[in-house]
């Protein structure tokens, strides 16, 4: 089959992109076979690291420019077959199963989403990101006038096509238009609050006090503890003050989730007790999540001042 290559895309005369998918699925297959030297079922990298390597290194290669050929209404069963073979080989490498093992079982053991569901999810996320673009973004010029924003229309955009043509059209812009029409929430890519000078620390710096803990071996540690006790006592006496005690812990070994814990008090009364799982997140990100969960409760009860304490929660 005669194909043209332009900017890494392989075009055929019918724009089916079969050669494009074949090329990148073969490239991903070659890379997956080369990963065998990094470890096997007896030694080498762990199973979780194998899974991470596949998702971060192989999936982007196999799904390069997915929006070119994954279109709603297109015949994709034969096209996806090569990508499914790549993932099946990767699942065998991750789990150490035999070659004759069923594809669905090995993918489930390896923690991999089936290829057709993975492709559908990637396309849905790509379409959703279009709704967060600025009103003057060039991509919006390809959509209908309702989603076009302030971008000038283009002759080949959806707004310039007739209804009969759009009925039989297979295009990424058509899929994006259908996804954007389902969103009820409005997005502002350049919201005024995100501009420098309008952030919380920029406008209310005089209302924010941070007490950084010194090391326990430091001579100032005793004074620091007394200062925290004084702050906690004052917060408990003030009924308009909400104080939050939160922390999180992430395991260093094993594929376990991080644990979050948050206690919210108004005056001396406990108004919220939150315990949740933070999935596979790092300890700093899990701690920020726990703090955000506690602060979100203040939107309901209302307060004039807010005090946050970071505790130490061990991971069992």
Give a structural overview.
The mean pLDDT is 82. The chain is an alpha+beta fold and 316 residues long. The strands form two sheets. A four-stranded mixed sheet has the order 5-4-3-6, sandwiched between helices. 43% of the residues lie in helices and 12% in strands. The chain has two domains: 124 residues, no CATH class; 102 residues, no CATH class. The chain is flat, with a radius of gyration of 27 Å.
Structural class: alpha+beta
Low-confidence stretches: none
> How many domain modules?
2
Series of H and E elements: EEHHHHHHHHHHEEEHHE
In percent, how helical is the residue content?
A: 40-55%
Number of strands: 6
**Radius of gyration over C-alpha positions, nearest whole angstrom:** 27 Å
Distance between the termini: 60 Å
Could you give a short description of this structure?
This protein is an alpha+beta fold.
Features:
316 residues; two-stranded antiparallel sheet; 12% strand
Mind sketching the topology for me?
Blueprint: E1 4-6, E2 9-11, H1 18-34, H2 47-62, H3 77-95, H4 103-110, H5 115-130, H6 145-148, H7 163-168, H8 172-181, H9 200-203, H10 221-237, E3 241-249, E4 259-266, E5 269-277, H11 283-296, H12 298-301, E6 305-310
Parallel strand pairs: 3-6
Antiparallel strand pairs: 1-2, 3-4, 4-5
Helix pairs in contact: 1-2, 1-3, 2-3, 3-4, 5-8
């Amino acid at each position: 089959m005669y194909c043209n290559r332009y900017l890494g895309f392989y075009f055929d005369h019918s724009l089916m992109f079969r050669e494009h998918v074949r090329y990148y699925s073969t490239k991903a297959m070659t890379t997956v076979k080369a990963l065998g030297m990094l470890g096997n079922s007896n030694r080498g990298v762990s199973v979780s690291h194998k899974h991470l390597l596949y998702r971060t290194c192989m999936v982007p290669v196999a799904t390069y420019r997915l929006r070119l050929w994954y279109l709603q209404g297109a015949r994709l069963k034969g096209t996806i077959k090569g990508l499914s073979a790549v993932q099946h080989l990767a699942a065998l490498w991750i789990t150490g199963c035999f070659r004759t093992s069923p594809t669905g079982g090995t993918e489930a053991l390896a923690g991999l989403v089936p290829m057709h569901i993975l492709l559908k999810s990637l396309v849905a996320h790509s379409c959703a990101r279009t709704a967060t673009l600025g009103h003057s973004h060039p991509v919006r010029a390809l959509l209908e006038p309702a989603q076009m924003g302030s971008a000038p229309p283009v002759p080949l955009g959806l707004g310039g096509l007739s209804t009969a043509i759009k009925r039989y059209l297979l295009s990424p812009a058509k899929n994006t238009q259908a996804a954007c029409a389902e969103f009820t929430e409005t997005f502002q890519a350049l919201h005024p609050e995100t501009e420098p000078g309008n952030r919380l620390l920029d406008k209310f710096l005089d209302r924010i006090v941070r007490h950084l803990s010194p090391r326990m071996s430091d001579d100032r540690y005793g004074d620091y503890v007394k200062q925290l006790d004084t702050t906690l006592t004052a917060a408990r006496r003030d009924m308009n003050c909400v104080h939050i005690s939160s922390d999180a812990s992430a395991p260093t070994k094993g594929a376990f989730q991080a644990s979050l814990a948050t206690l919210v008090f108004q005056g001396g009364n406990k108004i919220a007790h939150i315990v949740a799982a933070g999935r596979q997140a790092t300890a700093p990100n899990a701690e920020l999540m726990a703090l955000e969960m506690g602060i979100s409760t203040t939107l309901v009860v209302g307060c004039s001042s807010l005090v946050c304490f970071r505790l130490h929660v061990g991971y069992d």
